[in-house]
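Blinded run. Sample ID left blank on purpose so nobody reads anything into the name before looking at the predicted structure. Input follows.
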Amino acid sequence: MNFASDNVLGASPKVLQALLDANEGSEPAYGVDAHTRRAEEMLAEAFEHEVVVFLVATGTGANALALSALTPPWGAVFCHAESHVLDDECGAPEMFTDGAKLVGIEGAGGKFTPEGLAAALERYPRGVVKAVQPSAVSVSQVTEAGTLYSLAELDAIFAVAKPAGLRVHLDGARFANAMVALGCSAAEMSWKRGVDVVSFGATKNGCLACEAVVFFDKALAENFQYRRKRSGHTVSKGRLLGAQMVGYLSDGHWIDNARHANRMAATLAEGLAAAPGVRLAWPTQANEVFAVLPPAADRALKAAGFRGAPWSSGSLPPGFTIGPDEVFLRFVTSFATRPEHVAGLVEAVRAA
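Blinded prediction complete.
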């Protein structure tokens, strides 16, 4: 009944079984094992492209290391003003890039526009010694507001980024949830749009602790193995990362998990939207619901054992305000969310 995050649940049974199976016998260490090789092959199949893959245990490691491969220390990385890489990585991208500047772009619903990116680029003219040099753009899919960039919106942003010489990073902590919601393939949401590197998230959607940095250009991955090792993100028992990713990708498990999480979120959003005194800040597009509640409903949820996460009002739609007597919460569903818990949460709000 904890809807504060999709990180509060454990791993899925299929991923745990893959880990147990890989635990038998011995394998070479540091990621040169058969499980990791199979994970790399499966990611290439999922993306329909030759890829260079590096497995890490955390999303922060994946994002910060990916960006370090795209920008020099004097570079600028453009991202949303409330993006995870800017607000929630404790400065890791700046540290791992040896000091590159993250430039936040405002935008409603966790998304920035091509016009916003173009305006930001004008502030950092290329070749001016006093300014950081435009190097990369990072797009979150799903965003921090639980919203999605459509494929057309990605195209429009990258049509500004690419001519400006920017490399493109996709923060895909909830990659599967976004892909399922858009009804597209992994390829259509990444390299076919012009993405250079993806932080492919698996932990939130069923893994124990496993993310992948996926490069579509071998040249960008040059020396990345040293970046990963130097940062402390090369796991000695690398087969246990590889096994998680194999279990996650096998038989469409990752897609099934995301589909269930998204379906539970849609049910929750529908129920909350119909409850008296409740407003949704944005349409629910993946597995996150952002709701404005009366204080009585918030108290009722806590008393019943339900938990959401208080959220920032920074990128609310124009004209959408939260009153001093209202509570703004995020509710996140997952592969393990039970329908009766969704129904119970909605009923608690209605009763209040």
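Unblinding after everyone has recorded impressions. Residues 253-273 form the longest helix (21 residues).
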